[in-house]
Design brief:
The chain is mostly helical. It is built from 20 helices and 2 strands. Strand 1 and strand 2 form a beta hairpin. It starts with 5 loop residues before the first helix and ends with a helix. It comes from Nonomuraea longicatena.
């Protein structure tokens, strides 16, 4: 068993809770303090959780990442990591495998297996270095980039973006080296920039989902420049659409609206699916701004464009935008309109969210979770709390399978709405389950 980190636990228990008078700071409260400190210092979103702090206190993790250590030192007003019980991992000495003149097979196997997990980070750091780019770009290289972008995008939709961001970033660094150092035949140039732009867009989407907003903005800007260099209006529309959604999520609905309007310039060059996608983004911005007429007009236009979609004419990065996705996106816009302006839009929002939940298949677990949580929140606010609890529990089964900071925030919103009805057993069970999923 690992040694418990009593220094860290003691420091936390000596720190007064910021919200509960006379109580020590809880792990959840400390996690939020750390995330807030890092955001104030570096303008970067992080997702430290109470569960991870528990691992630190139990000694399962003895050397957290540098920004977490820096924040904890500042919060507890200590000078060194040692004061909080942190120590760098070291290579464990090999145990003797000889027992009574022979080899102890169990000890030998434990030692051999342990060698794989006690290797320090510096020993494998070279694995993250950029692979030397080829001297000349081939069509096969571009095909590989497109395939990787598709795989990463699918993973993001199914599991959330947090788990494989480093893999995407490493591949993106290699792709940048292709643009900088490899010779590309003129007929392949636009295809190369499009493939790299799609990969950058996939990485940016993952960063957005993980609340690494600065990273996402940098990758979005790079993806947009690639799309414009290739004069690919379709990729440009897709990148600007998700840039707008990030801005809206971060509270800048007006900035998101500007990005959507920029994407809709020369909309005649776009496919019906792309126009539908952009008008749903416009609807979401208008709803956040409380502009009812413009929201409803945008939803109507999105519906009209989607009715003319022919999937075979859409780009690979638009394959996700099916009937379920369209219903979910427009349902989210009407959800915001109901909560911000008038509950009479709740019924249309609920119908669209229900359609999205029923239509999203296994590859789109995250989207199904988003719509399910929103429908539960809407029902909790306007309908039967116990029915809402049932919807919420089904949505949490999906949410528990993904790693998504956006889903975590939606769950917290649902928990806040459910708090008023916790006297009902199904609702109390839901809020307990939300705490478990969020902390995990």
């Amino acid at each position: 068993m690992p040694d418990r980190n009593d220094a860290l636990r003691g420091a936390r228990e000596r720190l007064p809770s910021p919200v509960a008078l006379g109580q020590p700071t809880s792990r959840q409260e400390l996690a939020e303090l750390v995330n807030a400190w890092i955001y104030r210092r570096y303008h970067r979103e992080t997702c430290l959780t109470a569960n991870y702090l528990g691992k630190l206190e139990r000694g399962l993790v003895r050397w957290p990442r540098s920004d977490y250590r820096e924040a904890l030192r500042a919060i507890f007003n200590v000078e060194t990591d040692v004061a909080l019980g942190f120590r760098r991992p070291t290579r464990a000495p090999a145990a003797s495998a000889v027992k009574e003149g022979g080899v102890n097979r169990k000890t030998f196997l434990r030692t051999a297996a342990g060698a794989a997990v006690t290797v320090s980070l510096t020993d494998i750091a070279h694995l993250g270095q950029v692979t030397e780019p080829p001297g000349r770009v081939r069509a096969a290289d571009i095909h590989e980039l497109r395939a990787l972008a598709g795989v990463f995008s699918t993973w993001d939709h199914t599991y959330g973006g947090s788990l494989v961001r480093e893999a995407v970033n490493a591949q993106l660094r290699h792709s940048v080296s292709l643009l900088q150092h490899a010779t590309c035949p003129r007929p392949l140039r636009d295809e190369l920039y499009t493939a790299v732009g799609w990969l950058a867009h996939s990485g940016a989407a993952m960063a957005f989902d993980a609340f690494a907003h600065d990273d996402a903005r940098k990758m979005f800007r790079f993806a947009l420049s690639c799309a414009e260099e290739a004069q690919n209006w379709h990729l440009r529309a897709k990148v600007l659409s998700l840039m707008a959604r990030q801005a809206i999520w971060c509270g800048d609905a007006d900035g998101g609206l500007t990005l959507v309007e920029l994407a809709l310039v020369r909309a005649d060059r776009l496919t019906p699916g792309e126009r539908a996608m952009l008008h749903t983004a416009r609807a979401r911005a208008m709803a956040k701004l409380g502009r009812v007429t413009e929201t409803l007009e945008s939803v109507s236009r999105a519906d009209d464009h989607f009715a003319r979609v022919r999937p075979r004419d859409e780009a690979p990065w638009m394959r996700y935008y099916d009937a379920a996705q369209h219903a979910g996106d427009t349902g989210h816009a009407l959800f915001d309109l109901a909560f911000r302006v008038d509950w009479r839009y709740a019924a249309d929002a609920a119908a669209r969210l229900e359609s999205a939940i029923g239509g999203h298949g296994a590859p789109y677990v995250r989207s199904r979770a988003f719509s399910g949580i929103k429908l539960a929140s809407l029902t909790m606010a306007t309908g039967d709390p116990e029915e809402a609890a049932g919807i919420g529990m089904r949505a949490l089964r999906d949410a528990g399978r993904i790693r998504s900071c956006r889903a975590r925030d939606d769950m917290r919103e649902l928990a806040a709405l459910a708090h008023l009805h916790e006297g009902r057993p199904p609702v109390a069970e839901l809020t307990g389950r939300i705490r478990t999923v969020v902390q995990a």
